[in-house]
Design brief:
13 helices
């Protein structure tokens, strides 16, 4: 019961800190001219968003850090999750800086970004095994069975971390989309952490949910600030960290189902076009397909929030056999 109250406190602190940062950070980003660049190949209606302050992910990161340190202190699990989040946020911040400040529209080169993500994944995997004694087993959803991957676990974790950070980045394409989806993912991980006995991760995931809700005050349509790669990379890192610490990397596929759909839509679009010169979707990632079909942006976002809720619910249900 104490862990539940700490989680509620963490969510409240993160929400308040993030919400209070808005009137400070948004004008600062505006004065610094850290405005979003809109790519010409995106939906035309997005051109109106050009110049909207970006890199607002620092609000989420600060809210999560403050809330986690207050409620979980120097707990090793919470500290590990925070460090992974910050490490991925640093890559995103560098990418945003190149695009926004140095005016190089594509940001970090793909190989540079991937190389840094691979390095963080490698270090995180070795840390979990060698220092944290996490082991190399992962839970199979809808069963109470674990599979030991042995030495291959580090490679598996690298795929999870790289995939998660890039998937959230792809999802962050509409006002309130990535932040709202991550609220449901984080709430699911409060329950996952409770069921698996990871109380520090309960507070961290609660802080993540609270910070995303606080950010949505300014990020809902029409958005007054974007999280940028700074925020989306951080969210992806945080989600992957929670999955690894609770041994639920495969469950994350269900809980983060929207992230998976967005990523798969891009992969399938590329494969289809390269092999048949035909596109499966009007535009990828998937949320743009619905936009081009004429759906208003808020409707698309609400639909994906509903999908996120369903995925989170299915993911939590998949854990019941292992919690009995």
């Amino acid at each position: 019961m104490e862990a539940i109250w700490y989680s509620i406190l963490a969510a409240a602190i993160a929400f308040i800190v993030t919400a209070l940062m808005g009137p400070l950070i948004i004008p600062l980003l505006t004065r610094l001219k850290f405005g979003q660049n809109i790519r010409d190949d995106g939906p035309k209606r997005h051109m109106a968003k050009a110049g909207t302050p970006t890199m607002g992910g620092v609000m989420i990161i600060t809210g999560v850090m403050v809330a986690t340190f207050i409620t979980a202190g120097s707990g090793i699990e919470a500290l590990t999750a925070v460090l992974v989040m910050i490490a991925l946020a640093a890559i995103g911040f560098w990418d945003d800086y190149i695009k926004v400040v140095l005016k190089r529209s594509l940001g970090l080169r793909a190989r540079e970004k991937l190389g840094l993500q691979l390095l963080i994944g490698l270090l995180y995997g070795l840390f979990l095994i060698c220092y944290f004694n996490r082991g190399t087993d992962i839970l199979i959803p809808f069963t109470d069975n674990y599979v030991d991957l042995g030495a291959a676990y580090v490679l598996f974790l690298i795929v999870v971390l790289v995939g998660s950070s890039n998937a959230v980045n792809l999802t962050d394409g509409l006002d309130g989309l990535a932040a709202g989806v991550t609220v449901f993912v984080a709430i699911a991980y409060i329950i996952v952490a409770r069921l698996t006995g990871h109380h520090e991760i309960m507070t961290f995931s609660a802080a993540l949910a609270g910070a995303c809700l606080g950010f949505l005050i300014y990020n809902h349509h029409p958005a007054r600030v974007f999280m940028g790669d700074t925020g989306s990379m951080a969210l992806g890192g945080a989600v992957a960290a929670m999955a690894a610490l609770t041994k639920t990397e495969l469950v994350l596929i269900l809980i983060g189902g929207v992230y998976v759909l967005e990523t798969m839509s891009v992969a399938l679009q590329v494969i289809s076009y390269q092999t048949t010169r035909k596109r499966l979707f009007l535009m990828a990632p998937l949320h743009h397909h619905f936009e081009l079909k004429g759906w208003p942006e808020p409707k698309v976002v609400r639909f994906f929030w509903l999908l996120a809720f369903c995925g989170a619910l299915i993911g939590v249900i998949s854990l019941w056999p292992s919690s009995l």
